[in-house]
Amino acid sequence: MSTVDLNTLQVASVVDARGSACPGPLLEAKKAIGKVKVGEVLEILSSDPGTKNDIPVWAKKVGHEYLGHLSAAGYERIFVRRKK
Fold first, then answer.
1. Which residue ranges does the record assign to the UPF0033 domain (predicted)?
2. Dihedral Cα 63, 20, 42, 70, nearest 10 deg
């Protein structure tokens, strides 16, 4: 995991999966990662508490870089950099 300031991170795309239950946010992230260029960052918004555990596992498994997450009011902001 990189040491990047998630508050100032430039994101290429945002997936708003708030209100969607598992595995919805992960499926949305899988679809959206193909729409950002290699090296760009995808931000996933999710109110499902399991997503902040699911996304890092998925990112590592498929070769992307999980950058971390920030807690917001009732949801998580999760950041993944596309690596391939």
1. 15-39
2. -100
